Every structure is written in C-alpha cells, then in structure tokens.
Amino acid sequence: MNKLLLTMAILIFTTVNLLGQTKISGIVKDDSTEKEIYNLNVLMLETGESVRTDRIGYFQFVDVAEGTYTLQITGIGYQPTERIVEVDGNTHIDLGDLFVTYNPANVGMGIITLTDDELEADETSSQSSAGLLQSSRDIFNRTAAFELGAYWFKVRGYDNKYSDVFFDGVRMNKINNDRVNFGNWGGLNDVTRWPAEQTTGIDPSDYAFGSAGGVTYFDTRPSRMRKGTSLAYSFTNRSYNQRVLATYNTGLMDNGWAIMGSFARRWAEEGVIDGTFYDSWAYFLGIEKKINNRHTINFSALGSPTRRSTNSPNTQEVYDLMGKDYNAYWGWQDGEKRSERIREFHQPLFTISHHWDISNNSKLLTSVGFQFGKDSRSRLDWYRANNPSPLYYRNLPSYYQAIDAPQSKIDEVIYLWQNDQNYSQLDWDAIYNANYSRGEGGAAYVVAADVADDQTISFSSLFNTRTKSGIKLTTGVRYQNTKSHLYREVLDLLGGNHFVNHNSFQNVYYNVDEDQGRKVYEGDKYQYNYDISHQRADLFAQAEIELNKFLLTLGGKLAYTSVYRDGHYRHEQYLDRSKGKSKTYDFWDFGGKMQLLYELNARNFFQLNTMYSTFAPTVDEIFPNARSNDYTIDENNFTQGGNDLVSSKIWSSDISYILRAPRVKARVTGFYTKFMDEYEKNFGYIDEGQGTANLFGAEYVHGIDKEFIGGELGFEAQLSTTITLSAVASVGQYIYANNPTYQRFSDSYSINEQDLTSITAGATAPMTTYLKNYKIANGPQQGFSLGIQYRDPKFWWIGATGNYMAANYLDPAPYRRTSAIWGQSAGLFTEEFVRDYLAQEKFSDEFMLNINFGKTFRMGKYFMGISANINNVLDNRDYVTGGFEQTRIGNLDVLNDRPGYQQVFAPRYWYDRGRSYFINVFFRF
Amino acid sequence: MNTIKNLKLTLIAVLVLFSINSCVKDDDWSLPPVQCADDWTTNMTLEELFAMVDATGEILTFEEEKIIEGYVVSSDSTGNFFKTVSIQNSLTNPTHGIQVEMDRTNLFNNFPLGSKIKVNLKGLNAGYDRGMLKVGETYVDGGGNVRVGRMAEFKIDNHVVRSCDMIENPIPVEFDNISEVFASGVFNTLITIHNVQFADSQLGLNYAETNQTVDRILEDEQGNTIKLRNSNFASFADEQLPEGSGSITVVLSAYSSGSITPSTYQLYIRDTNDVNFDQPRFGDGGTDPEPGDYEQFACLFENFESYAVDTDNFNKYENLALTGDRKWRVTEFGGNKYIQATAYNASSSMSAYFIVPVDFTNADAFSFKSNDGHYNGDALKVYYSTNYTPGGNIDNATLVDITSSFNIATGTTSGYGTFVDSGEYDLSGLSGEGVIIFAYTGSPTGVTTTYQIDDIKIIDNDDANCDFGNGGGDDPTPPSEDATPLFVGHDFEDWNSFIGGLNSFGIKSYANQSTGTGIDGSSSLHILGTPAGNDYVFTTLAPEGLPSTYSKVSFYMKGNSEKSVSLNLYIDDSNYYKFNLGTITSSAVIQDSGNNQYAGTINTNGEWVLIELDLSNISDLNVSNTSGNLFALKVGKDANYDLHFDNFVIE
After folding, report:
1. Is A303 a residue whose pLDDT tops 90?
2. Among A14, A5, A91, A94, which Cα is nearest to A43's?
3. Cα(A139)–Cα(A585) distance, integer angstroms
4. Which residue, A457, A479, A745, is CA-closest to A625?
5. Which of the residues A203, A784, B283, B318 has the least number of beta carbons within 10 Å of its own beta carbon?
6. Any chain B CB within 8 A of the CB of A394?
C-alpha cells in the first residue's frame, strides 16, 4: 500500500503547477498522552515527498508549490491520519499540533496470535499465511486475515509455500517444503508487528521477486521500532492460556546506538483440546549502530524455543463418541496426561546487516545471516508389537459393525470408549509393561523423534536507486546454503532395554554397514540418517517507470537451485542408492512480472498485475522416499530417462479497481492463477486388496495443474466520526485443472523378486489420477465478513463482525481416483455407487460472530490498555476447518469384502474449537 | 527518565511477569508399575475346568467370576503361534493344558513365555474345538456350527492378566520316543522328545513353504512318526530343516474333528532353539557323502525344481565355496527354479564351484542354460576335469576351460536377461570318471554380475531313456486333428461369434482381434496394453459339444509380457482350477495350482509356442451347462502385455 500511495503521489506530482514556494510545518502528538511522537512518517500525497518527525514531533516541508495537499501521517501503532492543506502564497503554514490516535485494536494482537491455532494443523498444508497480512493497510487483506483467517480462510486459497518471508534479507521458507515455520519467531510481536513491507499476491516487492502469495519483509533495526518499555500480559483459551511479553528499546540514542531486547513466553498446561500443552519462550536482541549519516550496522538475534503437543484429526465416528475436543495422542502416566506427539524446535537466527545510503537517491543493503537448530516431532514407534493408538481401526465400534459382531459387543466397545480411558486414550502402562515383558530383548515400543537439524547461511545484497529520469531501479542478489541433517532418534525407551535398527515388516536392516545387532539407546539415531545439501541463488531486478497517468513496474528473476542427498545408512533394500551422495539435481528458474497502475483521478485507480515464473521443486518433491533412498521420479524402472522432475510454473494475473474517497475506501479485484507441474505428497497405508493394509508409502502426485479464479471485494465506510462499517467478500473457485500422474514410493515395492539382493526403484508404475475438477482443499473458497466498529472519543471501542465461510472441501485421496479403484470388482458396484463414493465431500457453510472491545488509559507518563477479542461468540462447533480421506481403502475390493470399512476408514476432520477469547493488558512508558 | 532507570524498571517488570509460576510438564516421567493381577484370586483349577466341560459335553458360558491360571508355554514371537496362548497348570509335570484364544497379534508382549497368567472366565466361553480345550468366545462358522474362537480384542485386557509372579520357565516333560508321547503326552503342555529326526522325505525342505503352513514329519528310531506343524508366517519358515537327529522341545497339540488319534497329533516349536538335532542321523546313516560316494552321471536332466529355494547343499552335486563363503544356491523367479551365484554385496571376493559328477565314458553331450543380470563383466567359467573326484582336493585337479565352447548369457547390464541355451558340447571324446564345473569368480569391488544356471543336461545317446528333447522333461505334444474348440470362436477368425460366447463381463478394451497375425496367417487374439488391475480379460461360456472326458487344453501363444498370464477352468461359476503360465520362453505343460499368480515374464522370441494345460487329474469341468463359465484368461496389473493367442482346443 505504501507503494500505491507513493505511486499516486508521483502521478499527481506531475500535474501540479509550480507557482509559489512555501514551507509547511507541524508537530505530531499522541492524542491520549499529548506527548510528541518521534519518527512518524509524514507523506505529502500529491508530491510523494515524505519526511519523518523529529524528537519533538516536528516536521516540515519546504519549497511547496501552490495547490491543495493531503498530508498523511503514519507510523507503527498509530491510526493513519490525514490533513488537507491549502497553499496559496503564504510563506509559512504552521499546522500547530496534529494529534494522532494510538491504534489499540492492533496492540498485542499482532501477527502471530491467530496463526498459532493454525499451527496445530501444521503436519498438513493447511497452515495459513493469512496471519501475515493482519498488519496490512488494505481493508480486504486486513479483514481477511484478522477475521476470516481465524477460521482457516486463506487469501486466494494459496498454500503457505507461495508466501515468502524475509528477516533482514534472510529467506525463512524451509527447503523441504518451502513453507514458513512461524513458530521460529513466535511471541515476538513487538518485533514483528509492523513489517517493513508486506505485499499481497503478485504485487511488486521492493525486496524480492516473490511468488504468488506475496512478500513479507521484516527489518529488525531497533530504530524502526517503538522506543521505550512495553509490557503485556494476555489470557486466552486457544493453543496457549497465558502470555507475557516484555520489550525495552532505547531507540536511537545520541551516541548513535540503538539497543532493543524483547522476551516472551506463551504457555498452557492444557489447551482447549484434551491433553495438549504449550510451552514457548522467545527472545530478541537488536543492536544497531549508526556510524554516520551514510552507514548503519545492525546486529540481531532472535529465537523461540518451543515445545508443544499436537492433536489428532479424527473421524466423525470418534467425534460423535468423544466430543470435538477429543485427542488420541495422550494417555495417563504418573497421574498426568502424556502426549506421544510433541513438536520441539529452536532455530535461532542471527543477522548482521549494513545499510548504506550511498547518495540521496541510492541505497545499498547488505546482510549476512546464519540460522541453525533442530525441529523435532516425536511419536511412538514399535517393533513387533501392535499399534497402540486408540484410533487404530480395530478398536472402533464401526470395525465391530463391519465384521458383523452382535450389537451387544458393539455396545460394549462404545461403553469402553466412553468410560475407560485405558481404552479411549493411549495406555502408557500397557506400553511400558510390554517393554518389561521383553526383558533384555529389544523394546516393543519407544518414543522416537523425527529430527531435522538445519544450518543455513545466507548472504544478500540489495541496491536501490532512482535515476535522473525518475525511474526507480532495484536489483538484488541473494545466496542461501542449507545443510539439513535428517534422522530418527530414540527419545525414550519407555522402560525397555534397547531398540533395534531393523524393519520387521520387510525384514531388512536399515543400515547393513553397521553391526546388525546394534542396540539403539536413548539419543541414538536409527532407521534413517541423511543430509540434504541445498543451495539457492537468486538474482532480482525491478524498475518502476512513470508514463503520464500510468505507473509501470517491471520485474524479473533468475534463480539457480542445486540439491543433493548424502545418506549415512546403507539400507538393505537400496544398497547402492541409499548411502553416499546422490546425483546433484539442479534447476534454473526464471520469472517476469509487471504491474500497471492507472490513475483515473485522485480517487479512482485501476491496477493490473501479471506474472509468469518457474519454481524449483522442494526437497520433499525431489526425493519422494528420502528416508530410504535417493530415487527420484526420473530414475525408476518405469520412466527411465524420463524428464518429469521439472520446475513448477505459475501464471498469475489480477486486475483491481481501487477507490479512495475521504469516507469510503474500496477495492474490487478479479484474479486468475494457474499453477502447473506441481507436486503433492503424503504418507499412508493403502489397501490394494482385501483390507489388509499391505502397503505403506508415499503417495506422490506430479504434473499437477491447478486453477485459482476468483474475486475479492473490500469496503470500508466512515459512517460518522465514531462508527466505521467494513465489508469484505471473497469468492473463488480453486480446482485441479488436469489429471496428473500418480506414483507410490514404498519400501514394500523395493525387493526385486528375481534376486533378493537387487533392488528396483521402489515405486509403482505411473498411473493417471483423475482429479480434474476436484476442488483444492485449502480452506473455504468463499468468505464473507461484515463488521461495524464504534470508537468512542473517550478511548474505548467496541466492534462486532459476522463471518460466513462457504465452499470448503475435503481433500481427495489420489489413489482412489486412479483406475485401480475397480480392483477385481468392476462389475459388482453400480456406476452410481462408485460416482457417489468418489464424489468430493463439501463441508457445511457456517456463520461465526466475533466481538472485540477495549479501552486505553493514560496515567501521567504511563499508558496502558486492555482489549478483548471473542471469536465464535455463538460457539458454533459444526465448522469443519479441514480434513482428508484416509488412504486405506484403495479399491472397491476392500468395500466388496467389508462394506462397513467405509465407516471404519472414514475421512478425518479438524473442527473449529468453538468460542475463544483473547484478553490482553499492556503497559507502556 | 533516563535510560538506565528505564532499563532497571523493565528488568524488574520482566522478573515479575516471569515469576508467574507456570509449570508445563517437561519430559521426565517415572516408570509406571508392573501391571499384574495381585487382586485376582484364582478360584478354579484347570482340572476343574476340564471336569466341568467334560461333564456337559457342551460349550460353557460363564456368568460368574471364575478365575483360572496357568503358565505360558507358547509364544508368538516368531509368528509360529497365531492369536493363541497355551497354558499348563504346573511348572513341572503338568496334568492339564488349555489354549486361551485372543484376537490379537504379538501376544508375547503381554504374556511372555514362562509368565503365569490369570483368566477371568466371566463373559467368556470354554469348550472343545477341534480336539483342544479352548477359552475364548463363541462364533458361528461357515457351516452353521457354534464354536469356541477368539475373544474380541477389546475384552483381552479386562479378562486376561499376568500374575505378579516372576517369569519361571516350565520344565518340559521328557519322552524318549514318539510312542511314549502318544501314550502319556498332555495337550497344550511343553514336552521334549528325544531321539528323533526329520524323515528322509523331508530333507532339503524348509520349515514351511512360502505361502503355506505345512506339516513336517519327525520320526524316531522305532519308525513312529509325528507331525511338526510350521506356519509360513514364522520367522524361521524359510530355514532349511536340520538333517541330524536329537531332541526337540514342543507344545503338544492335535487337530481333530472327533476323537484324537496319533495321526492327528501336531507339534509346535516356539523357535528353532527348540530343535536340537546335533547328533548324526540314525537309520539310513545319512552322513555327508565321502569322496567317491557321488553318482557319476551319464544321463542327467537337472532343472532344480525339486529343491527348496535357498538350498545350497545338493546331495548329488558338490557345491564348493573356494574363496569367501558364498555358494551357488537355488533361487526362484516366476515359478522357475535355478541356481544362482553373485558377488553383489558380498563381504569379500568369492569363488564358487558347482560341480557335476560325470561318467565321461558313457556321456555323449552336455548342455545347460544360463542367464545373466546386472552384468559388469564375465564371472562364469565352465571346466571339465577327468582327474577330480567330488569331495577331493580341487587344488590337485586339472581343470580344462571349455567356457568358450558355449553360448553364455552376457551383457544384461540392468535387471535380468532371459535364459539362453549354451549349445551342446561334445563329450564323446572323453572317458573315465570326472566332473563338469560351473565356476563363478567375482568380487564386490570388481565383477558382480549375477549368473543363473538351469536345465543342466548330460545325454547318453546309447540310453533310449535319455532324450530330453528341447524343453527337457515335459514337452507338450501338438493337439490332435479332432480336438474340440474350447469355446466359440476359438481361432478368433469370427470375432463376433467369439464375443457372443463370452459371459456378461465381455472383453477388456486392450484385447482385440488381429488379422494376419495368427497361426499360418490367420487371425489371433491380441492383448496389447497395461492392465490397471489383475483383470479378467474375458470369460467364455461352455460351448455345445464338449467332450465329457478330456486330458488337456492346448493353445498357441506368441509375444512378450512383463507379467505372466493366469487361466481359469471352471467347475461351476464359483469354483475353478487355476493354471498359471509363469515364465514362458518356449512351449510348456502347465499344471493347475492353488491360486491365480502373475509372476514371471513371457518372451517367445517372436515364435509361436504351444501351451498345454494338463487335465489328466481333472474330471469335473463344466462341459454341459452352456450358460455357465468354462474358461477365463487373466492378466496381472501394471505390466505391459503384447501377446497373441490362437486356437484354444480341448481334447
């Protein structure tokens, strides 16, 4: 939006007569504290000239020509304020005190709060980038993020992987899936509240080429943040219950230093969902030294050591039995709820950046970054023992129904579910006792962790200049080198003696080069152990050119990615394709984008964006079964010499009309995006036959085309000085646009029958999966929000928003949509049945009401506020936020054999957690 | 306010905020107690349970808390027992044993060997099932009979628990021979039988077959036999039976629909540590052959079909590991067995000699088939020696390299090739006793090519019985002139009438009439494509005029495929015989088998081959019901097929 304003200003500037020369000055003060405010931005809309307020809140514009001007005052934490000034020959216009309102609705809400809930779902792609947009100045984006985003709505339906996030030039998207772990800076709201830049969709960015979902850039210089002390305490019933946040910032001191520290902790002994806990700490240190007017050096360190447990998605049957807060991942031990699934990560980031103002028109920003640390997810693992999960299909009442057990038995099972937590939850005592039974032998059960230990070094340099002819040029180069060590380790032997490094299902050793009797103890690695080396270099250039009433922005990128795997274990099934370095896979990517902005008049704008770009596949996409081997889709028996491992492509366009009248602001946008040659992967069991789950493996779909088409409307009207009405609507259709190729990579396939020592590529032959016109399951495809807010001059406010989410779909399982669905049973089912069976489930459309209110106080030098947000006030618990089909029923043979398995292996869902509150108290001085 | 003061205040505030005590559970957990049933009081002995069941002769249902106990003598840790635990009433000299039937795998994690368990019978059933007293729950079998089966899994934890006693292994009751077992063995107890060995007929076999639970015969010195029953799911299923004699420790069981006779006794081992056959065999004195014990062949056809997979010990031939420990061993692919050697992934360089004793005086010709895989250099040499006796010292022998006289498979750098004929080597110039040697020499860091040898033939022209023809052994004979069409349109000349003779499922789209490609330029059925499922390509109804007695079905086939073809011949619409072609490179006679398999590849090298389905033991095919199925052709999924078929006849 900054750019938009700037752009408009430049356009207007060209039409202004240069008649007189006048100075405009004023002092900006906080309307509650009446204290002068330092470092706010004052922009003269018509000229594009901007100045900053000094320590006494003073600003001035000199040599202003005659005309009417709009001054817009913006800054971190303040409501944007506008003031009209007429210049008609006076030599000095003193505007006196200009009061701006501290914007308490955003205080403490910041960026992370809401996405925490969504993080729970982070094992899937449903994580949202919506939270990133909350500080956007665009009414549509802000509302979509703040109101709809709380309900898993994603702007334009894009996966999080298409949003790029940078901290001081370091790209935070992970190499394995290009997604961002927001938890890496979780809780540091005082640092991340106001990103230096936030673009949406394919809008041009000042910092990077970006992808389809926008660029967010954080600049951690303390001098850019609020000066002083800030303390906050929050109380909520979401993933965590309590949060404390403390920040101190010296601001830019006379000696040129600025130092800021921020600490946060968020925790819950038990969240809303049964048996989940949350324990997250966060720290930030920023040290900035302004050497002189040209050079500034900044060092920052941030991290967020976090431990939290996750919750299980369940079938409707289980929710009906146990309620919507049921979670299968915990059980009683020591009189406490113990979870098997704990995510633990701490990946601190260190950056040093150099800001060099080469001249008034040119800047060079250079930074180096280093990030390292582990991200680990725990789970139970077992060896020659039974699946201990209460959700294991043979424990469900529907299983007993499927095997035609008498009703009395089914009732007994239901009784156990509802009355015996040794049955409905993990039975840790039984798990330990199974290990005791093993004696000196290998343990039956262990808690193991899948660990990714990353080290990333990063270098970037960005050069900005404005030519004499007014063209703004940006060029950037960025290099990032990541080494990721991935392995499984034993965290807890659970009373067992040791564990083994052997696959009992395939009867093979995970590492034939080690002693086959090796005993695995706590902290020891087993099963898989490999490194991924990933390098990426980007070149980015962009030009902004004024053309009469048009502003044209052209951008381009060139990127090189190089990836290889280096295995440490020689897997018995893949003797020559598991240990040592794989081939290096490299990808050259390019892209071009354009924005054309047309100003009809000062209030009406049209904007056209278009982009075509290619993106290298992620590490997960390159190596489908990386834990066992380094095969790719291009090198298996079936597509030998194939060339399917190619970069994905995005073709995206949008067109907007923007209205900026004094009391009404609106935007209407239509967009079309086509993703081509995409990949999707997930893990699961597949029944190809009679319900015996004979295969475990990665379901891998490639060559996917997706189409996203839709429209967005954002509208905000100032009904009176105190009442604001806002409305947003997003209507889209996001579908699979072709029938892509399906392959399964499974260790169950790897042994060549002919010679037990020789190995195939461990994949099925490519098959077509008929996904065309299925809806993409990425949150609701339609979202509507209507809100009204009353803001009293006495510094309190209240607002309410009605939100309506529609067109949300279940994720279809790809194997079922191949011709393998028929199995041997083609003639046994009617076409109608099969069509019905394969039809995509659409979740119900739901309405959710949100309320927020708060008040701010001033007590001498101290400023405090309290605010509360209540989401889903009506406690609507019927809203399915997402779900997926289980892969177990691979074909109709299974259903023919056991019709009831359709219930046993029904889809699993996540439900919205119902009414939630977030109360925040802050204190600043 | 100056900076220092501010900072102090902030620090104090931070401390206050963080001192809000909050304990989120960390990862330290103390060990849970051992779960055991201190509070369960046994109030019924196994003896009383037997008496109760015997008194009524029916399956009992318990409504009161009756708690029995016993010592666990079975274990499913190797997979030989399945969803059952045998318990006996005493650690020594047990008098009663039962099976506790539970619908759960890996029961050894709950009820390990030697643990004492208690079973609360309330809500459970007890009764005889196939001769054994079982505790579980009743179910109705396919024949409508109520039987005692497994208790539902959700009931196990509330009905069966370990006692708090320490593990104590029962002392097996010892028997000196099999007849003593018959005389006084107690079912579902642990016993040791001394002085037994596997019968001669079992030697070379594995504990179980790949897909089948089997009985292996044990014999004692008196000639009594008893069955050792082994599951194909057991981890030791593919281990070869030991050849010596000695003692075996087993759980004694039986299988019976009525009264139990010695012939229905079954023994189950827990693992192979229970088999202690460290003594030489008795009776036949079957020790390892001494030098000179080998028969010298003048006439031989060895296709290895009689050997178990992974066998590397051949009574008739010598299998030497000269360097390293790898030998030639029997391998199977697509239903065909052969011997194989490879240095792939060997721990060291290797040299393996497969030595065939030959009577050179009478033998006239020698040939074999070979195949190579993952070829990266030659590793196979063929020698003969006239001064070596099997079992002797090969270093002293004179080996004559005749490798270059043969056509040996080579150059298959990726995957495996197909077996190629060596061509005949003339032995008529040699005389005396000697050997032919297949010598494999390779190294894991050098040549690792896999070689496979099959169909070793030594031909004695003077022996009328020593003519193995082309295929060796069974070769199909062309159908006679008066053979009957197997179905309407059997020669595919009239496609519409062929289609008209199919059942309602019709024919798959990838199977079509192909003109000019059949036998003698006629039309053929052409299967071209990659089936997505294990498809029925077509199923024919029985035509009019089939013979009531028959000996074979014959047809011609040409082309190649990545998987093989399976054929059904129907008794009625739900019962049928399955014939699996397996790997086909030339004409073949096929026997029926247990289930449809598609393993194997077909490559006829562009020639028509004749396939004969042997019906000599079959007499109940549907030859009369013309609206019933008679014949179906099936193909495997996800494999490429390009096959022509013609002239299906029965006679």
Report:
1. yes
2. A5
3. 43
4. A745
5. B283
6. yes
pLDDT above 80: residue A113: no
**Would you give the distance in Å from CA B29 to the centre of its chain?**
46
**Angle in degrees, CA B493, B499, B501, rounded to 5:** 100
Per the CB < 8 A criterion, the answer to whether A398 and A317 are in contact is: yes
Largest Cα separation within chain B, whole Å, is: 120
Q: Both tokens of residue A358? A: 């080469």
In whole numbers, what is the pLDDT of chain A averaged over residues?
A: 85
Q: What is the total residue count of chain B?
A: 651
Nearest to B533 among A333, A753, A822 (CB): A822
Amino acid at B556: Y
Neighbours of B25 (CB within 10 A): 18
Q: Distance, in angstroms, between B138 CA and closest chain A CA?
A: 11
> Other CB atoms closer than 10 Å to residue B227's CB: what's the count?
18
Return the exposure string of A559-591: e unless at least 16 CB atoms fall within 10 Å of the residue's CB, then b.
bebebbbebbbbbbbbbebbbeebeebebebeb
Strands (E), B574-651: 576-580, 588-590, 592-593, 602-603, 609-614, 629-635, 641-650
What residues contact residue B528 under an 8 Å CB cut-off, 6+ apart?
A: B510, B512, B641, B642, B643
State how far the alpha carbon of B424 is from the alpha carbons of B114, B457, B622, in Å.
62, 9, 45
Are B638 and A439 an interchain contact pair (Cβ–Cβ within 8 Å)? Answer: no
Does A372 contact chain B (CB < 8 Å)?
no
- Give CA–CA dist A156/A779, Å, rounded: 10
Q: Which residues contact B263 (CB under 8 A, 6 or more apart)?
A: none
**Minimum distance, in Å, between the CA of residue B94 and any CA atom of chain A:** 24
Closest CA to A150 of A184, A192, A120, A180: A120
- Any idea which residue has 């040093």 for tokens? A352
Residues A78-104 have pLDDT tens digits of: 667 777 787 776 678 888 888 776 654
- pLDDT, tens only, A855-905: 888 777 788 889 898 999 999 999 998 888 887 777 787 777 778 888 888
* CA B339, B635, A836, A709 torsion-angle sign: positive
The sheet carrying A22-30 orders its strands as A58-64, A22-30, A92-100
Question: What is the distance of C-alpha B160 from the center of its chain?
Answer: 34
Q: Which residue positions in chain B have pLDDT lower than 50?
A: 1, 285-290, 469-473
Residue A671 pLDDT: 96
CB B611, CB B587: distance < 8 Å:
yes
CB-based burial, A97-133: b 16+ in 10 Å, e otherwise: ebebbbebbbbbbbbbbbbbbbbbbbeebbbbbbbbb
Q: Which residues contact A451 (CB under 8 A, 6 or more apart)?
A: A374, A375, A376, A485, A486, A487, A488, A489
How far is A714 from A665, CA to CA, in rounded Å?
Answer: 8
Q: Is-contact B337 B330, C-beta < 8 A?
A: yes
Is a pLDDT exceeding 60 seen at residue A152? Answer: yes
Q: What is the spatial distance between Cα B71 and Cα A720, in angstroms, rounded to a whole number? A: 86
The distance from CA A219 to its chain's CA centroid, rounded to whole angstroms, is 19
Q: How many CB atoms lie within 10 A of CB B482?
A: 8
Contact A436 B637 (CB under 8 A): no
Joined together, the tokens standing for residue A2 give 């900054």
In eight-state DSSP terms, residue B307 is: S
* Element (DSSP H or E) covering residue A563: strand A550-567
A689 touches B at CB < 8 Å:
no
Q: Cβ of A757 and B534 within 8 Å? A: no
**Residue with the two structure tokens 């007849």:** B179
Among A246, A423, A512, beta carbon nearest to B14: A246
Q: CB of A922 within 8 A of CB of A242?
A: no
